[in-house]
Amino acid sequence: LDGDLSIYEVADYHQELVEKLGSATSATIELSQGLEMDTAGKQFLISLQKQFQATGGDLTVQVKVKNQPR
């Protein structure tokens, strides 16, 4: 996911993911480093995880970390 995951974006992401995932049984969501996430965003990810588990699927959430110069 690109951008923030807050109460203002959750509805848009939900619709986008429903369309993209369809009836997938497994998926990986990659979050970008520096992402702003509030409670609504966390609830959204938990809800997706529960939906996948209810159908025997698997959802993985990864955080993409950019290499920082030393």
Can you describe this structure?
- With 70 residues, the chain is of the alpha+beta class.
- 40% of the residues lie in helices and 20% in strands.
- It contains two helices and two strands.
- It has helices at residues 10-21, 39-54; strands at residues 26-32, 58-64.
- Strand 1, helix 2 and strand 2 form a beta-alpha-beta unit.
- The radius of gyration is 13 Å and the shape is globular.
- The mean pLDDT is 84.
The gyration radius over C-alpha positions equals 13 Å
Spatial strand sequence of the major β-sheet: 1-2
Oligomer: single chain
The average pLDDT value, as a whole number, equals 84
Number of strands: 2
Tell me the fraction of residues in β-strands, as a range.
Answer: 15-25%
Main sheet, how many strands, which sense, barrel? 2 strands, parallel
Helix percent band: 40-55%
Low-confidence stretches: none
Distance between the termini: 27 Å
State the shape: globular
Q: Structural class, from secondary structure content?
A: alpha+beta
Number of helices: 2
What is the H/E order? Answer: HEHE
Keywords:
single chain; 70 residues; 20% strand; two-stranded parallel sheet; alpha+beta; globular
Q: What is this entry, summarized?
A:
This protein has 70 residues and is an alpha+beta fold. It is 40% helix and 20% strand.
Topology (elements, then pairings):
Blueprint (H helix, E strand, L loop, with lengths): L9 H12 L4 E7 L6 H16 L3 E7 L6
Parallel strand pairs: 1-2
